[in-house]
Amino acid sequence: MSEKIEFKRKFTEIQPIYSMWLREVIRFFNMKPRVISTIVQPVLFLALLALPMSKLFHGAPPEMEQTMFGGLNFFSFLVPGIVGIGLLFGGTMSGVTVLWDKDFGFLKEVMVAPVRRTSLMLGRTFGGLTVGMLQALITIGVASVFGIWYGFKISSLSGFLLAIVFCVLTFFIFSCFGIILGGLFEGTEGFMAFVNLIQMPLFFLSGAMIPISQLKGVPVLYQIQFINPLTYGVDGLRSALTGSTPFFPIWIDIIVLITVAVVFLLLGAYTFSKMEVD
Q1: CA–CA separation, 124 and 121 (whole Å)
Q2: C-alpha–C-alpha distance, residues 181 and 150, integer Å
Q3: Measuring CA to CA, how many Å separate 18 from each of 5, 126, 176, 209, 244?
Q4: Burial (CB count within 10 angstroms: exposed 0-12, middle 13-18, buried 19+), residue 1
Q5: Helix extents (H) in the chain
Q6: Are the C-beta atoms of residues 171 and 87 closer than 8 Å to each other?
Q7: 159, 240 Cβ separation under 8 angstroms
Q8: Residue boundaries of the structural domains of the chain
Q9: How far apart are CA 225 and CA 211, in angstroms?
């Protein structure tokens, strides 16, 4: 009898997770401009950022370029960083859906349901994660096509699968972070202003565009990199995709990301439990 009750309890938690996931996915595909943006944005970042910036080293000795960027040319170094842009921006913007649901009254209906707040967080996060992984895969695919001429290629199948793990963990962290912010802010304007304020420092101080070691000796900025979760996501992603030597051991990257993901998930559940919905 107790086993049946336990199974029923677990099943009732799976249902809201699935429902929230499905709702986020359906909402995404119903918003055609968002679908187009998800597909086009990686191409624009690669074409307008990675390719022009890689020309900065045109004519420079390959040895110098590879020494600066851990054995990679600049284009190959930038590709994982651009994947990181999508994970950071897409994840933090997940909080907008919380604000929309507040305005339309859907969140109030969800909050009174007899389900755990962690389940609500997981469902929303998995929905955003599905969209984020779609964009990450498109970015890697387009970069591989450009890489025919610019030297980027995926190191191995196992490296690609490990890169997917890093993408999932990184997006999960910033999706939870975005949902936490969505629960704390009352209006879209305040949310957007704060997100825009913190996105650029998180991106530029993550090793995505500038090697971590290049900031050594720069007070404060060098240290901030080590408390930025994106630093560990990009470091592991770059090593997995390209086969280059990571700044941190891979196991440290994974442990840090998992720890931060669990902490943010619990904080998000707590934020939901304290949220006041009119």
Answers
A1: 5
A2: 39
A3: 20, 9, 17, 36, 38
A4: exposed
A5: 2-30, 32-45, 51-54, 62-68, 74-92, 95-104, 106-111, 117-150, 157-184, 188-204, 221-224, 229-242, 250-274
A6: yes
A7: yes
A8: 11-274
A9: 10
- Return left, alpha or beta for 111; rule: phi > 0 is left, psi -120 to 50 is alpha, else beta: alpha
Alpha helices by DSSP H, 185-206: 188-204
| Per-residue burial over 53-81, b = 16 or more CB atoms within 10 Å of its CB, e = otherwise | ebeebeeeeeeebbebbbebbbbbbbbbb
CA triplet 43, 44, 47: central angle to 5 degrees? 85
Q: Which residues contact 148 (CB under 8 A, 6 or more apart)?
A: none
**Residue whose C-alpha is closest to residue 265's, from 161, 195, 171:** 171
Whole-number Å distance between alpha carbons of 174 and 163: 17
Is the pLDDT confidence value at 93 over 90? no
Q: How far apart are CA 90 and CA 95, in angstroms?
A: 10
CA distance 228 to 236: 13
Q: Supply 184's token pair.
A: 């704390």
Q: For residue 137, with 0-12 CB atoms within 10 Å meaning exposed, 13-18 middle and 19 or more buried, which class applies? A: middle
Residue 41's identity, in one-letter code, is Q
Q: What is the pLDDT of residues 156-206, one digit of tens each?
A: 889 899 999 999 999 989 988 888 887 777 777 788 888 888 888 898 888
pTM for the whole structure: 0.85
| Gap between the Cα atoms of 156 and 177, Å rounded | 32
Distances (CA, A) of 176 to 153, 204, 245: 31, 21, 29
Higher pLDDT, 203 or 272: 203
CB 49 within 8 A of CB 152: no
Residue type for 157, please?
L
